[in-house]
Task: structure prediction
Amino acid sequence: MSSNYDNPFYHDNVYGHVVRLLQDHSAGGQGLHLDIGCGFGRMAEHVRDHVGREYIGFDRDDEALASLNERGFVGIALDLADPVAAEAAITAAVAGRKVASLSIIDTLEHVYNGAEILAMLRRIALNSAAVLVVSVPNVAHRDVGFKLAFGKWDYTDTGLLDITHVRFFSESLVHSLLLSSGWHLIGENNVTLDKSDQHFPALHPVLAEGTPLHDHLARLRDGVDRCARINQFVGAYLPGPSLRGADEVPDVAPFLSVVTRTQGKRIDTLRDVLLCLSAQTSQDFEVCVIGHKLSHEAQLAVERVIDDTHADLRRRVRLIRVDHGTRTTPLNVGFRAARGNYVAILDDDDIVLGHWVEEFKRLAAANPGRVLRSANVAQTWQPVKTGVSSRSVRSIGSFEACYPVKFDFFQHLVENATPPVSLAFPRACFHDLKIEFDETLTTTEDWDFLMRTAEICGVASDGEITSIYRKWDNAESSYTAHSIEEWQTNHYAIWRKLDAKPILLEPGSATRIRHLVHDWNRRYLAAPGPQPDPHLDATQYENALREEIHNLLHSRTWRVGAPMRGLAAMAGRRWTYPMLWAMNGPQLERYLSTLRSSRSWRFGTWVRARVGAGNA
Amino acid sequence: MSIKKNRQNAGHLRVHSVLYGNEQNRVEQSIAHLNRAADLAVAAGVFKSVSLAYGDSSPRACLDDEFLGAVRKAHPAITRIDHLFFDGNLGSAKGHNTLIVDAQVQETEWEALLIMNPDVMLAPDALIELARPLDDPHVGMVEARQLPIEHPKEYHKLTGETGWATTACALIPMNVIRELDGFDQETFFLYCDDVDFSWRARLAGYRIIYQPSAVVFHDKRLGANGQWAPTSSEQYYSAEAALLMAYKFSRKDIAERLLKSFAASDLPHLRKAANEFDRRMEEGRLPKQIDVKGAVAEFVGDYYTKHRYSL
Result:
């Protein structure tokens, strides 16, 4: 220990935050406060004066302990490397008195045996149910993470990346360590710093606040959790049972989680959906049926339909009830419950073909991490009930290819062109990046979610039709349940959301935007724009060549050259109008070159030069 | 969904399926669905028991003893699962007739026959829903609604009555099978044996019912733009059957028009169908003509009844 760690007490630094927590959780009353790894114990006076407890500091640094003693506090030598000896030393110092509280501030990151130490402190605290305040630095502060993303990891003498740290903590790691050691969080007072001691070099594009790079990363990071700006986690814990492995995720996750929203109003089509699933060629999925605002009767009916399915499917179906929120809320609940690597929405009136899951799986193997999109057709259906049937449905129209086969981000900036049943989203988008459905949207929530995930993950499209989107005739659907004004309001809201942040675009987008700008300029500013590039704009380039050849063949110069073509025809070389539409770029280039060097064209040019022609 | 329990004189249901090169795992999946449907149907008193028989037209048997032992053990709601290897491709009509004859040897009492394709998966309540119209003794066949692609033929929205039923999945009372002497195996190989059976049943005074609430999954796929694209082999058997249907049901005009069109076609499978028809005619193997007054036969374009839309 050196004077590097002799930090003064401030109300807004870690000492101030620890004392505040002790004050907030002072139900233990008077007694001892044990400060483990206390250093110079700069909060000792505040614990004594403002919390009303007798302070005892423990550390292995003689200089720090001498400072404590000089200020009238008990300071005891303690080596945490040996928890058995440490426990004996602490017990001796306590000498049967009541322990009201403990603290271990910025110490656990310096030791290898944090779990043992916390278990030992729990034994000391358990008799009097003493509160423990823990502080550790946050290695997931955005300054550290952003720099590391670009290859920078800067150790310093103190601070977030203190050269002597042997362990690093994020929020989940510190809570997991404490829970597994039998400590339960009861309060927090974290130290937040927008710019930590790692905020250097300040003008690095990833740190400088004025850059789009920083803005984009900061938005994504802030969406994940509340820890981006936390410098030190400061939490108060009470001793209790050890919950070892409580947050462990099962090892074997299915490929796909299917989220099916139902209000229990369409039991017959829900049965269709479950049959489509149980008949899939790939059964590597689970089903989360989200019952939204189900009446008691509807709940029983939904449970009946699920219970009717055969055993292999039934064990993979969970019914989760949601009694609040809009039609968007069940999606968040379903995605949160999902355990699969990908999550797909299959509403209770959709139909999927037998290879719906299999195709998603194939696409995922070829495009890991991307949003998956298969092709889809729509079909109109209506309710039916014959004299001898139960309530059912029937198709009344041919399949309609309403939606483009390939995903086009730019088209989707205008409106949605992808029914949710044709999509599967990486679970990590929702669970790790916390991209969730916007519950303020009462319609088109899937479009908003698609745009926010597509931008980050990209979309892998496939032309194989694997689903049928049912359009309803003479039956309730989202189109009849919401007014046109409501649809429009949500549409505009999504446009505003898209405008409010930077957008990542796939390679090739610049050419696409250039075409859009050229078209705009041509239409509204009458500006022709530059010639297309034969590699970037193959189609545009070929069309430009076709237009040029067409113009030449309809020019006066060409008409003037007609006698030369007549002579050639008499010699057996009859000229016919070329099949421009069937020619590719190199063929068009050759034709144009041949045309310009032809006797007919040269003759026409020669004549026009002598009679003083205007436009060719 | 309402479950009608304890049908009067509920009897044994036998299920027939003809295999041709099917994958065992899909067959097993189909059996698992049937097992659950049988379990619920028997519990509801709709059938007394359910058994299953496969006829195997494959060059080599699709199912082996180990597989059969495992599925019999895993699916106890099906009282027996039989596998009859035909040692030859009998097609659809002869395959089912052979299974019917075998059933009469194996099992004495059975009330109804469910014919289904081996890749069909039944909804849990499919048997219950299929059996509902059987209370009417005038019902000769009940067809299930297929997912994901519903058959587009029209049916009466109040009575469920339709022109014919496809045996992709259809329930037939045993007395109707006996009365009609099974399927016309001399005329039809792969297609239209079910249309022929339906029309003969109607000629005998029975009604054909489409039951939209009896749902089964029949694994069909769609081509680009949502078009259903049959293979050339399917087109051949379909064309051959079309000629024979028109001839058998006394629509010589249609048969001649089709024959002329097929014979002049650029498509080899259509010319082959025309040649086969000519050969049958020369050999005197054409079926006896029936329904001369056109009481039941309905030829609507390429279809055998009116369709709501085209696929």
